[in-house]
Every structure is written in C-alpha cells, then in structure tokens.
C-alpha cells in the first residue's frame, strides 16, 4: 500500500480527535445506550472528517477513497464500536448514493450539512420482514401530485432515535422487485414518522438502534435520489462502500484486541511466569496478527482499486466476509487469555468481543457474502 505524508497527517488528526474528544466519554455513552451524535459529528465535521471523499462543491475534501480508508481504519481505535458504526452510516452508508446521483439542489440541502456535521443521517433499508433479502421490502412511496406518500416501517435503524434525515429505500411502483425501488431523502421530523421503539442490543450499546413507523408521510418528489426505479441498484452500489468500510473499521478494533491482550498477558502471572511466556499464547497471538495483516493488505488493495475507479464488488465482499470471521475468531481467542477478567464489563476486550459479533450479521450476513461470491464464481444454484 502506498500512503503519502498527507495520509499520515490525516491519521494524526483523527487519532488526536479520538484521544481528546471521543475516548474519554465512551464509557458514559455505553452506559447511557446512546452517544450525542450531533455534538460528536459537529466536531468531526469541523475537522473535515465527514466529507473526505465527497465533492468539494458541497463542502467535501474531494480526496480519493484511500483517505477515507484511513478514517475507517483509525475509527477502530474508538473504544466502543457503536460510535464508528454511526459515523460510517453518515459517511459511507447513507450518503454515497446522494453524493453520486442526487440533484444539485438535494445535495446542497442535505449532503452539505451532513458533511459539516450539522445533520445526522440514518439509513432505512432493513425491515421487520426483510433484512438479508433486500428486494422483499414492503415500505411504499406512492406518487401524489408533487409528493410521495410513504407507508410502512424500518427495522434496525442506526441513529434512528436522533437522526434528522433518513436515506430511505421504498417501493415506488409494482414493477419487478429489482426495478420498483427508489432511494428517497425523508426528513425525520415529517408528520407521520415515529420511533416505535429503541432496541436493546447485546453490543454496540453507545449506538441507538430504532424501529421506525411511517404513516402517510408526505415527502416532496424532488427528494428522490437520481432516477425512480433505480433504488435497488443504487443501494447495492452503496453496500459495496459500506462493506469495505465495515472491514476497515474492524482492522482497528482487532488490532486493539491483540495489543491489549499482549499487555495484559505480559503482566498477569500463573504457574510462576507471565501468561504471555507460554508458547501456545505467543503462537496464537502471532497467528491472529498474521491473519489480520492479510485482511489489512486485502482492504488496502480494495481501497486503491476504488481510488482508481475500479469495480471492487468481489474484493469488498471477500473483505467483509473475512472481517466478520476474524472479528469472531480473534476477539474470542484474545478474550480467552484474559480468563475471568475477560468475562467482565470492566475491560476493553469484552466490549470488542460483543461489538464485533455484529460484523458477521450487519450490512449483509456472512452467508449473504458467500451467496454473492458463489454467483461471481458461477456455481450458484
Ligand atoms: C445493530 C444493528 C444495526 C443495524 N443498522 C442498520 C441500519 O442502519 N440500516 C439498515 O437498513 N439496516 C441495519 N441493520 C440491519 C442489518 O443489515 C440486518 O440485520 C442484516 O442485513 C441481516 O438481516 P436480518 O437481521 O433480517 O437477518 P435475516 O435476513 O432474518 O437472516 C437471518 C440469518 O439467516 C441466514 N441467512 C440469510 N440469508 C441466507 C442465505 N441466502 N443462505 C444461507 N443463510 C442465510 C444468515 O445466517 C442470517 O444471519 C442493522 C442491524 C443491527 C443488528
């Protein structure tokens, strides 16, 4: 991977921000089961972190994807997975389609303030009855004059209790499932939008996750992103960015898992020596590091390919799959070396273990990644 002084300067800025403005507060946010997204995003926006690869015309830095990859990797240093996940939703999950296909008017109204951190975005794709099978969503947006009338609901919406705007996937016609969907910008304060509940989760506590209801929500048709009927395609493109992002942010947290386990096992004694002085422990940690380094190399290969404008569907899918596998293997294996302490809420490793479990489920489960790969290999039946 070829990184410049500019990449390293960005990395230093992100690290300083995390150290001063984020990590000192994450325990409080985990306890509260929500973090103050507006406050955190505003500071991140002031530093330019929410629009690294977004067009300069709308306040972004207009840099190539490798700079965004530095952000995703560094965010793994935040000591609670919920915060990087919500930032990823803002930059790489809910806004790429708007940035690429939205009208200038829509981008000025919604992308520009997302980049400055003045508004918080959520992504409304998954529903109670459809997660893996995105094509089967039921939410509708029916034309009525110059408006759409939206009915239905969304499930698992990250930042859903505090977001200002939702990038919503809805059915806009009765055409076949891959041609009847559209992405629509839906302000969350529109009458008819309600938060049905905030979902209690096993991990990612600092991120608020909501179930949303829509009852005759009226949104202007100019809030459509790109062309009507192209929403499924746009969302699949948006998923590629999301999957590479997910893999990158896993790198940072798993590096923390290995590093903090080395520190702990070096200090902790059993049978007259450090736990780390057992060759079994050393070999396991070396193997985890090797696996992580291979994933890191694949992620950076993907980042450079995106920067060159190449299609990275296969690599992003592979990285996401491998990141999910390693998030389970490395975090669980490291936790084992902490003994009873690893099973408490008092140490870093247990949070990495439970937060990382989502990587194999969110943004497409491991099995969905495998299904995509079988199609690319020509063996899908
Ligand atoms: C904390 C959290 C945050 C999230 N944030 C968002 C968000 O902001 N916006 C959003 O739209 N969504 C969000 N999601 C939803 C997430 O993307 C879905 O949970 C995920 O896509 C899986 O869908 P599902 O939960 O409905 O599982 P299901 O579709 O019910 O699948 C259940 C399981 O079935 C298996 N499976 C599925 N398909 C296949 C197959 N073809 N072959 C073999 N096995 C299969 C897999 O093991 C899968 O885990 C979030 C989820 C969580 C938990």
From TrEMBL:
Residues 229-376 form the Acyl-CoA dehydrogenase/oxidase C-terminal domain. The keyword Iron-sulfur does not apply. Gene3D superfamilies: Acyl-CoA dehydrogenase/oxidase, N-terminal domain, Butyryl-CoA Dehydrogenase, subunit A, domain 2, Butyryl-CoA Dehydrogenase, subunit A, domain 3. Residues 4-118 form the Acyl-CoA dehydrogenase/oxidase N-terminal domain. GO terms for cellular component: cytoplasm. It comes from the Bacteria. GO terms for molecular function: acyl-CoA dehydrogenase activity; flavin adenine dinucleotide binding. Keywords: FAD, Flavoprotein, Oxidoreductase. GO terms for biological process: fatty acid beta-oxidation using acyl-CoA dehydrogenase. Residues 122-217 form the Acyl-CoA oxidase/dehydrogenase middle domain. Its cofactor is FAD. Belongs to the acyl-CoA dehydrogenase family. This is Acyl-CoA dehydrogenase. It comes from Thalassobius vesicularis. The lineage of its organism: Bacteria, Pseudomonadati, Pseudomonadota, Alphaproteobacteria, Rhodobacterales.
């Amino acid at each position: 991977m070829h990184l410049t002084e500019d990449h390293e300067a960005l990395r230093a800025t992100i690290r300083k921000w995390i150290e001063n403005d984020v990590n000192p507060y994450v325990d409080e946010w985990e306890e509260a089961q929500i973090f103050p997204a507006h406050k955190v995003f505003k500071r991140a926006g002031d530093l330019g972190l929410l629009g690294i690869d977004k067009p300069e015309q709308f306040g972004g830095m207009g840099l190539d994807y490798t700079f965004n990859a530095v952000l995703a990797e560094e965010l793994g240093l935040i000591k609670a997975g919920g915060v990087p996940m919500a930032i990823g939703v803002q930059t790489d999950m809910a806004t790429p389609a708007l940035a690429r296909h939205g009208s200038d008017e829509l981008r000025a109204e919604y992308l520009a303030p997302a980049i400055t951190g003045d508004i918080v975005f959520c992504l409304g794709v998954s529903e109670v009855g459809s997660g893996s099978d995105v094509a089967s969503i039921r939410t509708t947006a029916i034309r009525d004059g110059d408006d759409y009338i939206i009915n239905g609901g969304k499930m698992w919406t990250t930042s859903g209790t505090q977001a200002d705007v939702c990038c919503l996937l809805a059915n806009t016609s009765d055409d076949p499932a891959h041609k009847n969907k559209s992405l629509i910008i839906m302000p969350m304060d529109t009458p008819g939008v309600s938060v049905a509940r905030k979902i209690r989760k096993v991990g990612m506590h600092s991120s608020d996750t909501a179930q949303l209801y829509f009852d005759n929500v009226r949104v202007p048709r100019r809030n459509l992103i790109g062309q009507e009927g192209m929403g499924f395609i746009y969302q699949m493109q948006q998923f590629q960015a999301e999957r590479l992002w997910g893999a990158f942010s896993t790198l940072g947290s798993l590096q923390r898992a290995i590093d903090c386990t080395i520190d702990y096992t070096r200090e902790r004694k059993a049978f007259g020596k450090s736990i780390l002085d057992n060759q079994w422990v050393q070999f396991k940690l070396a193997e985890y590091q090797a696996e992580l380094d291979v994933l890191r190399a694949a992620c950076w290969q993907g980042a450079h390919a995106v920067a060159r404008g190449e299609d990275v569907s296969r690599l992003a899918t592979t990285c996401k799959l491998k990141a999910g596998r390693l998030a389970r293997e490395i975090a669980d294996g490291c936790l084992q070396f902490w003994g009873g302490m690893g099973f408490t809420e008092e140490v870093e490793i247990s949070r990495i273990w439970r937060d990382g479990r989502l990587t194999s489920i969110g943004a497409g489960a491991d099995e969905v990644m495998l299904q995509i790969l079988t199609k690319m290999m020509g063996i899908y039946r």
